Amino acid sequence: MDLDLVLLGTAASAPTAHRAPAALLVRRGGERLLFDCAEGTQRQLLRSQVGLPELTDIFLTHYHADHILGLPGMLKTFALRGRDLPLTVHGPRGLHDTMGALRRIHGRLSYPLELREVEVGEALPRDGYELRVFALDHGVAAVGYALVEDERPGRFDPAAADRLGVPNGPARGALQHGQAITLDDGTRIHPREVVGEARRGRKLVIAGDTAPFAAVVAAAAGADVLVHESTFVEEERERALETRHSTALDAAKVGLAAQVQLLVLTHLSGRYFGPEIAREARTVFPNTVVPRDFDVIELPFPERGAPVLVKGGAAPEERPRRPDAPAEPGPGDDVAEA
After folding, report:
1. Which residues face 156 on adjacent strands?
2. Is residue 66 annotated as a catalytic residue, yes or no?
3. Domain harbouring 52, CATH code
């Protein structure tokens, strides 16, 4: 089953000419999960190759404006489409108050809207995985989410099954699903005889705005991908401490302590373009990337390779430009190092 992460907004508090504020879309099989919904998120989706999906779940990390201002507009758009599919918005303490205030903006909806306040330490069961809620350190009620897949059965060994006389069909399927079978001659075959060790699922951790925090290290331990904010570089350490944000070096130390495979830095202040963030972080954690909007992080199953950044993986298709149109931004205008 495919699993990837579409970076819809990688800026911090305010949009820039080339980066929108916080929004991430997780695609797992046919599921689409949106994490945070900043100003312009639905337009980012519409511009992208993804389009605006009929989301069933939106997960908010906290209620600062740069993480929720796109929500009322998106909810209203769904209603204008005549949607009747229920939608659930998840978030930390204060969700009902926040959504009550936003209701004055989006008005009546054509579909059921469920609000679900999540608690730190809670695990939200899903089909084939769970979302674990963990605490952040941002000076307000704020949570991160860890998507942790269930273990998968080990690989089935057809040659071993042939040697044991297991016929093709339901008997092999039962063994693959962990059930012992009895052959016609009375021989009992156990799954361990034809199925290898269970294989771990993938782990994707999304930490919203936070200062470096032990709870994030614990939640991200051994993750395939950790998405961590990097609002500042070290020369702005005092500002980072004041606002309960992280520097690139802070985030790199979290990635190193958690022993993640790939560290993805986002939530960049408008004063940075990306390369300076990547350079600082890589002095501590070399396997760091700083994506741009519409980049994609692919997470293959562990036995199929490591997570990878796909530059422009969901970017809008280029349209022909008029000869008299101004040139697009050059490489130095806003470049992310891979």
Report:
1. 195
2. yes
3. 3.60.15.10
Active-site position among 4, 36, 57, 66: 66
| Cα angle 152, 157, 160; round to 5 | 145
| Same domain for 209 and 267 | yes
* pTM higher than the cut 0.85: yes
Domain count, the chain: 2
Q: Please count the CA atoms within 13 angstroms of the CA of 179 that sit on its side-chain side.
A: 9
Q: Are residues 206 and 183 in the same domain?
A: no
- Please check whether residues 288 and 189 belong to one and the same domain: no
**84 and 184 co-located in one domain:** no
Q: How far, in Å, CA of 228 to CA of 143, rounded? A: 12
265 and 230 in contact (C-beta within 8 Å)? yes
Q: Identify the bridge partners of residue 133 per DSSP, sorted by sequence position.
A: 145
Residues 134 and 82 in one domain: yes
Helix axes 71-80, 95-106, angle to 10 degrees: 50
Question: Per residue of the chain (338 residues), what is the pLDDT tens digit?
Answer: 999 999 999 999 999 999 999 999 999 999 999 999 999 999 999 999 999 999 999 999 999 999 999 999 999 999 999 999 999 999 999 999 999 999 999 999 999 999 999 999 999 999 999 999 999 999 999 999 999 999 988 888 999 999 999 999 999 999 988 899 999 999 999 999 999 888 999 999 999 999 999 999 999 999 999 999 999 999 999 999 999 999 999 999 999 999 999 999 999 999 999 999 999 999 999 999 999 999 999 999 999 999 999 999 999 976 554 555 444 343 333 444 43
Q: What's the CA angle centered on 36, arms 35 and 38, to 5 degrees?
A: 145
Long-range contacts of 123-129 (CB under 8 A, 24+ apart): 124/90, 128/1, 128/201, 129/28, 129/201
185 and 37 fall within a common domain: no
Contact of 288 with 281, CB cutoff 8 Å? yes
What is the span of the domain harbouring residue 180?
158-193
Do 12 and 144 have their domain in common? Answer: yes
Buried b vs exposed e over 224-246: b needs ≥16 C-beta within 10 Å?
Answer: bbbbbbbbbbeebeeebeebbbb
Judge if 146 and 75 occupy the same domain.
yes
